[in-house]
Amino acid sequence: MTANISTRPLNRGYQPKLIALGVEMHNESLIEFPALDAERIEEFLYLCETMPQLAYGVIAESDQDAVGFITATMGTHSFSGHLTGIHDCWYVKPTHRNGFIAKKLITGFEEWAFHNGAYRVVLAIHTGLNIDKMDRFIKLMGYEHMGGTYCKDVYDARNSNRNRQSLGRSGGYRGAFQGKAR
Q1: What is the dihedral of CA 44, 98, 143, 80, to 10 degrees?
Q2: Hey, how many other C-beta atoms are within 10 angstroms of the C-beta on 36?
Q3: In whole angstroms, what is the distance from residue 45 CA to residue 89 CA?
Q4: CB atoms within 10 A of CB 170
């Protein structure tokens, strides 16, 4: 039986499903991330509802089970007024990584950016997972490789006197500030 895949715009009602997917993404990732912040997620979902030209989010569901999502924002460069659609998070559960859902999520992101005046869209891989496979897939979607994503934790350097036990599994900043502003 083929599952019925649907995509829906994110709103505050999807917060529990988005958090569950976010936890899965963080647990699977090779990169340390700050803890999920339910208040910040609610703020972003509110922006998706009230300012859809600036904040974008879509959830993919298979027979009502959340299996993926993409979030993005619209921004400009410091040196140009051209709008750019900038992907923030993009995740599909491993059991649904056949390319169909990922393609649907990216295509929706591109359409949103185009309809809101973007000059360009930008995707990046932030989890450190399947980089070669993701590179091939993203290139098949028509993207050019323009550099890379580099990550450096600066939280530890600024807060070396903090108890390292609270910083997560490898001394990174997962859970260290629980999503609160630094």
Answers
A1: 0
A2: 18
A3: 13
A4: 8
Nearest-5° angle of CA 167, CA 70, CA 92? 80
Whole-angstrom Cα distance, residue 116 to residue 83? 9
Nearest to 155 by CA among 138, 171, 133: 171
- CA atoms lying within 13 Å on the CB side of residue 93: 16
* Pairing, β 118-122 against β 80-92: parallel
Identify any residues that bridge with 9 across adjacent strands, giving them in sequence order.
58
Residue pLDDT, tens place only, 82-135: 999 999 999 999 999 987 999 999 999 999 999 999 999 998 877 777 888 888
